[in-house]
Amino acid sequence: MRLGTSYMGHHNPRHIRADIEEMVRLGLQDVLVAAQENDFVWFPGKLRFTAEIARDHGLRPVAIFWGALNLFGGGRMSQFLLEHPEGFQVARDGAHRPAGCYVNPVCVARIKEMIGVVAGLGYQAYFVDEPTPLRDCFCRACRARYDAWYAGDLVAAPTERQEEFRRRCCVEYVREIASWCKKNHPAVETQCCVMPHDDALWEKMAALPDLDNLGTDLYWVNNDRDPETMRPIVRGLDALCRRHGKRHHQWLQCWKAARGREERIRLQGRVLVEENPDALYLWAWEGQVGTKESCEDPAAAWSAACDVLRLAREQAAIRS
């Protein structure tokens, strides 16, 4: 089981090196760099130096576009959309929606361009972060695609057909990105996390020929759901991945954990370690301290996450 963490990062290599050295000490193999659009313009050192330093220390750098197009994950501050307003989603009534549309070829082209940049910097995997159906977008691109697929008007379509269309568009986006990666950067592993509430998409995502790695994120730290009930969910996705020849990853929550909930990180982590997916990732490094999504007690949360990493190393030693 590979171990990794998402990393908000820094532009100064001195600070990056100190963090990477600590990751090595913790036994991590992957560092998943949360690359914001701003990092491609104003903080290029974050992308360049993290990849270099990670590889020099034996870690695999993975790129996640965090908040890209105000659409994927957190950190949503899209400079691209400010410069390309034609990429914004459009509501049913024609009103502006403050996020991009992954059906729009302008937006897709920008994502591909960014992937090309990180591939050129030596990132060894690209991660499609939490794609989800865009149920409220009626932009020209969405309406044109609906007409091409169903010969009709998206605005007037029945609810069931709209839902089918939205799910199909989500899968098509991941298919297009994964296929583009394999055609242009064949050595780059393609990864995707599909959220638990989008589990209806798992089967079709797993069947995509150019997607290498599929997972989900059971972020239950702040609720009281029994961690044991994670097992059938994890096993179901694992079986699906194996049937389609995919690697399987799971995420453990170490972001926005409420104070006093840190034991939940350990409990969930133990279940995930025992289920032994191909990779176990933490979101995020050091409890995402200093960000809007920080744990309320990031030191305590990170301590709990490090206990899970320790358990994972112990279990790996036993299995070997």
Describe the protein:
This protein has 320 residues and is of the alpha/beta class. It has one domain: Glycosidases (TIM Barrel, Alpha-Beta Barrel). It has helices at residues 13-25, 44-56, 79-83, 105-120, 140-150, 159-184, 202-206, 230-243, 262-275, 298-319; strands at residues 2-7, 30-35, 60-65, 88-90, 96-100, 125-129, 189-193, 213-217, 247-253, 279-283. The strands form two sheets. It has an eight-stranded parallel β-barrel, surrounded by six helices. The radius of gyration is 19 Å and the shape is globular.
Task: Please give a quick description of this structure.
Helix content is 43%, strand content 17%. The protein is of the alpha/beta class and 320 residues long. The mean pLDDT is 97.
CATH class: Alpha Beta
Distance between the termini: 11 Å
Largest sheet: 8 strands, parallel, barrel
Instruction: Supply the CATH architecture.
Output: Alpha-Beta Barrel
- The total tally of domains equals 1
- Approximate shape: globular
* H and E string: EHEHEHEEHEHHEHEHEHEH
| Helical amount | 40-55%
Number of strands: 10
How much of the polypeptide forms β-strand, as a percent range?
Answer: 15-25%
